[in-house]
């Protein structure tokens, strides 16, 4: 078999568990598996600095890196391996991996996993996708995003709110900040309006991933994603409702991330 060595560019989002002692000051490294072949090892350095330290309890962290691997046997990633170098263990809860050149997005199963001193753990990756009904439909390169915050006491936030849209056929974009300069967004009972232009056009949206940057709680009522660039729009808007009243917060029992669908 001919060897096919491919350079991949990745965005990795990790969510540290909300359990006590989950956070870590250790160095964490990753390798990406393609069937029986594995990439070079990469030290995780944050892409954006939302927190003083990475891998804090209940927070998300965002990384960008490149790998090289033989993909002749399996062209798509099948697993991610975390390697630990340090004295205190790290317990993660979730990982989302996006190939930046194609927009393909993968996830590990929900649930805590732990790596400690000089150990490693390899976790299977699953493509984030649902089947599009019928024939493939056109893709949208500009979306309107409408976010409604609950009117409950203390439901608003001054924190940074970020979003990832995931299409039915398993594509996404780089993590994007929802912000309107000069406006106080996400006040209790408010509706806020944004535009999002993905790096590559996306078909109908299946999932909306919401992330919160820091410490005070926030209660979102709903989020709507609608096409602005397709006329006529072949898709109904995608609206996700926070019917379970999930607060995005830090600390035991809370995470600064949720997947709405």
| Tally of DSSP β-strands | 20
Number of domains: 2
CATH topology name of the largest domain, in short, is Lipoxygenase-1
- What would the principal axes of the Cα set say about the shape? globular
Level-2 CATH architecture of the largest domain: Sandwich
Low-confidence stretches: none
CATH class placement of the largest domain: Mainly Beta
Secondary structural class: mainly beta
Question: Whole-number average pLDDT?
Answer: 90
- Binned, the helix content reads under 10%
Rounded to the nearest angstrom, the distance between the terminal CA atoms is: 41 Å
Gyration radius from CA atoms, angstroms? 19 Å
Question: How would you characterize the overall build of this protein?
Answer:
The chain is mainly beta and 261 residues long. Strands 1, 5, 7, 8, 9 and 11 form a 6-stranded antiparallel sheet that branches. Strands 2, 3, 4, 6 and 10 form a 5-stranded antiparallel sheet that branches. The N and C termini lie far apart (41 Å). A hairpin with an 8-residue loop joins β13 (161-167) and β14. The protein contains no helices and 20 strands. The chain folds into 2 domains: 5-127, PLAT/LH2 domain (Lipoxygenase-1), CATH 2.60.60.20; 143-260, Sandwich (Lipoxygenase-1), CATH 2.60.60.20. The protein is globular, with a radius of gyration of 19 Å. The model has no long low-confidence stretch (mean pLDDT 90).
């Amino acid at each position: 078999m001919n060897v096919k060595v491919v350079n991949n560019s990745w965005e990795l989002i990790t969510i540290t568990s909300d359990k006590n002692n989950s956070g870590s000051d250790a160095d964490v490294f990753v390798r990406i598996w393609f069937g029986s072949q594995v990439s070079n090892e990469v030290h995780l350095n944050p892409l954006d600095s939302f927190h003083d330290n990475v891998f804090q309890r209940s927070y998300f962290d965002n990384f960008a890196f490149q790998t090289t691997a033989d993909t002749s046997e399996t062209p798509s990633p099948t697993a991610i391996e975390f390697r630990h170098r340090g004295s205190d263990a790290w317990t993660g809860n979730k990982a989302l991996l996006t190939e930046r050149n194609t927009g393909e997005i993968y996830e590990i199963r929900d649930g805590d996993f732990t790596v400690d001193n000089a150990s490693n753990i390899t976790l299977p990756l699953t493509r984030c996708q649902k089947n599009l009904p019928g024939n493939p439909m056109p893709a949208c390169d500009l979306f309107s995003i409408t976010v409604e915050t609950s009117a409950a006491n203390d439901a608003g936030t001054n924190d940074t709110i970020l979003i990832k849209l995931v299409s039915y056929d398993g594509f996404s974009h780089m993590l994007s900040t929802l912000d309107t300069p000069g406006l106080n967004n996400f006040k209790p009972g408010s509706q806020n309006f944004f535009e999002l232009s993905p790096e590559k056009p996306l078909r109908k949206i299946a999932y909306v991933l919401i992330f919160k940057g820091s410490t005070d709680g926030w209660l979102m009522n709903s989020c709507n994603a609608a096409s602005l660039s397709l006329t006529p729009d072949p898709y109904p808007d995608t609206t996700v409702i926070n019917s379970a009243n999930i607060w995005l917060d830090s600390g035991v029992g809370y995470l600064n991330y949720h997947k709405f669908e």
